[in-house]
Design goal:
2 helices, mainly alpha, 65 residues
């Protein structure tokens, strides 16, 4: 089995859950994009997810050689 299949599943399903939770937070008013701290929080969360996905992908690529 390719090591990329679990990676795709992990970040595919996890990404959908992440986006769903972010949408719920926005709709409930817990996150307001008019306030700078809230915008920075959302950017930091998204950047962290992308950074972790990238690091994980690099590790897989290095191991597979």
């Amino acid at each position: 089995m390719s090591p990329w299949i679990p990676w795709l599943y992990h970040y595919g399903v996890g990404g959908l859950v992440f986006l769903a939770c972010l949408a719920i937070a926005c709709r409930s008013g817990a996150v307001r994009f008019r306030h700078r701290p809230d915008r920075l929080l959302v950017v930091a969360l998204c950047a962290g997810l992308v950074a972790f996905m990238t690091i994980h992908a690099v590790w897989i690529a290095l191991v597979k050689g």
